[in-house]
Amino acid sequence: MSKTSQLELNPNAFARISNLKFLIFRMSDDHGGFEGNCNVQLPGGLESLPGELRYLYWHGYPLASLPANFCPMNLVELNLPCSKVERLWEGAKVPLSISQQLSNLTFMSLRHCKNIRSLPTNMDLQSLKTLELSGCSNLNKFPEVSRNIRYLYLRETAIQEVPLSIECLSKLVILDMKNCTKLKYLPSTICKLKALETFILSGCKNLENFPEVLETMDHLGHLFLDETSLVNLPESFCNLKALHTLDLSDCSNLEKLPKNIKNLNFLAELRARGCNPLKLPTDIMYLSSIVDLNLSENSFDRMPAGMGQLSKLRWLNVSRCKQLQSLPELPAGIKYLNARGCRSLESISCLKQLFELGYSSSFGDGNW
Questions:
Q1: Those residues with Cβ within 8 angstroms of residue 284's Cβ, 6 or more apart along the chain or in another chain
Q2: Taking every pair of C-alpha atoms in the chain, what is the biggest distance, in angstroms?
Q3: Residue 72 and residue 122: Cα distance in Å, rounded?
Q4: Is 94 helix (H, G, I), strand (E, B) or coil?
Q5: CB-based contact 322:340 (threshold 8 Å)
Q6: Pfam families under this entry (predicted)?
Q7: Contact of 172 with 152, CB cutoff 8 Å
Q8: pLDDT tens per residue across span 201-253
Q9: In contact, 84 and 62? CB cutoff 8 Å
Q10: Coil, strand, or helix at residue 361?
């Protein structure tokens, strides 16, 4: 539909196209892209949708629920972004007949459906692999989903805690809870998520504690804890054996890193910008796989003398560390050093080395 179009459908609009397999309502712009709600009106409601439907994309779906007479046994993808849905089906539970009929549903997105406050308590959809609820700002309870779920997107929801039962989601690969500003609690059963590869908690400003990692997590490679209220990380954090990227940027209450951080043998990228109380552990010089280290905007006055041991380090950012007085020798492989705004810097053991090897470096009182 063009962005000037308006379409009004009667309740039986789809009665004569029972074999329809793909139904897409979204607004196109002048450049072939898509923007805004699709202006489809259903003043008399909607009696049903085609039973053969496999793919349903309806941007701005205008009703509070799907038609009661809709038999979704062939539905594979359900996408209702920015819609007025309050619930998918009438009642607090999914009717058993509907649950059985949804045996082919693999993808469901209700992103930015702000009228949704909860999902049915028995939504045991065995084929569902991806559930996207990002932007459902009134959703306050962690959804009960099948243990076969692999991708769960819950950004910008009102969820306050993750239940202990999350350990049942043994196939979960991505859990995205970015900007869940009411989230206060994570259970230690998170460590049971053996397939988890990416965990995003960026912007969870009320999250003060990261749970003990009581078991080894062999697949979690990317952990984003930036802009949280964490004070420290547990010593059991080293059980995140596969961790490749750790983002702690703007954790303004973070006082220290685990003493045994050196045991994160695959950690290649550490971002700890703006963690002002942060004290660097000596063990940081034993991060054997570190490539990119961002320690900018912190208040420490010196760095561990053994930084030269970080043989894989290529990028080091200590810009605007205003109390930093000296820089130690750095590894021969360093490619870029940013020390702009380090106003107290007096001793630079590595400067000659950098200039001799023609590396890119930035010093002085300038900005990043």
A1: 257, 261, 262, 304
A2: 80
A3: 17
A4: coil
A5: no
A6: LRR_1 (PF00560), LRR_14 (PF23598), LRR_3 (PF07725)
A7: yes
A8: 999 999 999 999 999 999 999 999 999 999 999 999 999 999 999 999 999 99
A9: yes
A10: strand
